[in-house]
Amino acid sequence: MSRRARLVFFAVAVAALAVALGVGLAGLPSFGAQLSAYARMLNELAPGQRHVTDVVSAISFDYRGIDTLFEEFILLSAVAGISVLLRPLSDETRRLPQDKAPDRTIPPPSPAVWLLAVFLSSLLLLTGIETVTHGQLTPGGGFQGGVILASVLYVVYLGTNYVTVERFQPDALLEASDGLGASGYVLIGLLGLLAGTSFLSNVVGLGVTGDAVSGGTIQLLNVVVGVEVAGGFAILASEFLDQTSVIRTKRR
Amino acid sequence: MDHFVSMSAVIPASVVVPLIGAALMAGFSGQLPRWARDLIAIAVAIATCTLTLILMVSSAGRPMIYWFSGWRPAGGMVIGIDYAVGPLGAGMASLAGLLVVAALVYCWRYFDGARGRYHALVLIFLAGSVDFCLTGDLFNLFVAFELVAVTAFGLTGYNAGHPAPLQGAINFAVTNSLGGMTVLMGVGFLYARTGSLNLAQIGQALAGRHPDGLVVVAFALLAGGFLIKAAVVPFHFWLPDAYGSAPIPVCVLFAGVLSELGLFGLIRVWVTVFSGLAGGPGPRMRAVLLGLGIATALVGAVMALAQTQLKRMLAFVTMSHLGIYLIGVGLLTPLGLAGASLLVIGDALAKSALFLGVGVVQHQRRSVSELKLRGRGRGLAITGVTVALGALVLADLPPFVSSDGHALLVSAADQAGLPWLEIVIALTVVLSSGAVLRAAGRIWLGWGTAESPSPDAGTADDSGDEAEDRPDTTDPAASDDGPEGRERSPRPSRAPLTMVLPPLALLAIGLGLGLAPGLEAHSAAAAAAFSDRAAYAAQVLGTRGGPTTASGRVAAAASHAVSAGGLLTDLGQVAVALCVAAIALDRRTVRLRRALATGTEWLRRLHSGLVGDQVTWLVAGLALLAALAGVALR
Amino acid sequence: MSVLAYGVVAWLFLIGIYGVVTSRNLIHLVVCLSVAQSATDILLLEIGYRAGGHAPVFVNLPAHPGPAVDAVMQALALTDVVVGAAVTALLLALVVQVHKRAGTLDPDQLRATRD
Fold first, then answer.
1. What is the pTM for the complete model shown?
2. Which CATH number fits domain C2-50+68-109: 3.40.250.10, 1.10.1750.10, 1.10.287.3510, 3.40.50.300?
3. How far apart are CA B231 and CA C96, in angstroms?
4. Interface test with B, best of C50, C88, C114 (most B CBs within 10 A)
5. Using CB atoms, which residue from A28, A55, A71 is nearest to C56?
6. Contact status, residue B111 vs residue B29, Cβ threshold 8 Å
């Protein structure tokens, strides 16, 4: 279709869809008026049943844990897909970035930038670990903490240069952590089968509500997911960085 | 009360096995030698297929409900997530497993550049498909939908060195993720109304009520998302772009599993959630679904004839058959569903054989253009037989499974008082199989001309070269010159057995299943069990009662469906398909073909490959679906 | 209040799709898709909202806490965010390769798959 025809067609179609959506949205209960019985029940029971204070984590990793397993694998497949899409193809080669002036190496980063990077990355590392391991107590958890941990790589790259990043984040390690995180979730789930109940049952000791170690498998799963997400996003970062900095067309 | 609850470890194992395999592939395959990677992946796929087959057999008499994390329903309210295993779902999952095995064997030592990530993606695709087919939770259905989609996006763009697969992947990703968004909105609406995410419980909450605007729009959004995945008109524009440029083994998975999952999702949600609505399963909803199915079937068939790029042609053939399945499903009867299921199985085997056969041709002759390959099929005799046989099986050649499915479907249409559907199906099938047979005749027998009747025979001629032991880029100058270009890089004179045998094996399985006694009765019983909403709700929620299904009657009707008349119709279809191919190849019909080409010019022009156009059609389709649902459900 | 709250959902979804349809740059298209995605997240969270409610975290609560909001919807929204991030990342990787191979970022200039 020509752009004009497309625009006219779209205008009519989107108006009709807006009406349909409006009809649907109008049937929703009034904003903020009610809570489903399911949600009320879980809010009341979860802290007692699972010794956690963050009910969202309990739902994600216990009551509806199998959803989160597949969600984790969505992330794994996205990372694998991106690695496949951005891999160096046969007409490309990897060439480390060089200074345009051939008679010197890349100048090192300024001490101020480097210091800031060290400070920020340490802060992010600690915050990430705290978020991952306290997911059952306060908002946070494996996914959120994993992303924070992965951002350490970005900060290191910004504060130094590509070569340093590559030295400290070997691909094999990142891939291994990605794979370990994903398989770790499944293995923890198998504990339930071994204990004679269902897959992904919470069969580890639940501890006391509010303790640093509580919630049983909820906390373990958070850690495992954190490892996987951190590895995954770090791989993403390095793949995109590779594409911009390192992968070049072969000169014929 | 816990009559149907199963603690069998086979149920979670059917997803755990491929997931663990995929995780290990993704994480550690760099350390493994190439042959080990392929072997482990194939072993995992075989194990998954076996597990799902076990589930199919053991759930035949009564369904198995498995509660994850140990959370059984309490006080009539569902707390956790369940798998509701029935023979139909488990059968679909087994089909996925089988096709994954075939695809992995086919690409033995094929995809090396990506180390183990290709295998990981394929295994996750399998795990997601199994989850989609077995789950009883609406949000889990959405998550599985997205999982299968995300792996598919990555796999489509595998040959990232060419613009065609990349564009196909982008169109695929944009349209299907919009589909995922509409599904999620539908889920949200249903939760807001019923307070549950479990299919059975939502269905119970909606049963017997008259649907209002919210429920109608929720249905339209859910159905829209699944129909996008199932590539039904007008949501189908992404399919030829994606299926026509993805690597061959990936096309096998897509054609056999991916789009059929969309239809499975549609009928699953319809049966468990919406079929209990007051005034719901009436002739109007049936008319809507049948209309969409007929449109899809005919558009696919016509477009298939117009193609000269083999993969794109097979993509449209796939689409035309999806239309037929939607006709079967849209009859909203167990017999129609049974017919559609058998067709799905039989056609999946045949379509996969066709794609793999085209893959052999591409591997040995470096092209997928029907015109450029004219007469160059000599030396690839086995593949020629495979391709011709595959096309004939798609035309419902007895005694393959497809012909049984066709018989059931025709019988269901007769029962519903719509015998003219048989003509529509026959027309679709002869046109699409005719297109493939025409290509086979041109390539292997050298018939026909080397030019196409239409002056601007599309640019979709890029073969989307496979990334094997050949450079990823295609030098444009080399693609259209004569023998000199070929001799530059020597090809092995024979195609490897791992590429030639799998398609034949798939066809043999189709023959074997077709000869198996009682297949129709089993599938009819499975479909009847699947279609009974009240019984399903009773089984999941553990309540007493719920009428048992009239599966006996349906099974009896099914075993009478295959008759001499049906056999003759099938053979007739095969004969007419061969005639279509012959007419298309005859030099004397040039004027007829040119007239047809100009007549369908507008339809071909619509398939522009531009994502903006495709999303516009998507929006229009959603709005139309909402309007139709409003009329059909009230 | 309901009209505004739910109207935002419809607006974001439709304006995101409008952006996708009229886009001249693939990166802009991906971001518009992400905007449409956020509409679904907001819908889930709004369905789960309870007036006067607090987050479903039962620690350090005031003396008379009101009801907690719906934790299930929050878990679902979390999953949706992850899915959206995954798809966006994949699309951006595709865009990077398209720019290299097709030489353009204009979706209407891509001519590799058409009839």
1. 0.93
2. 1.10.287.3510
3. 27
4. C114
5. A55
6. no
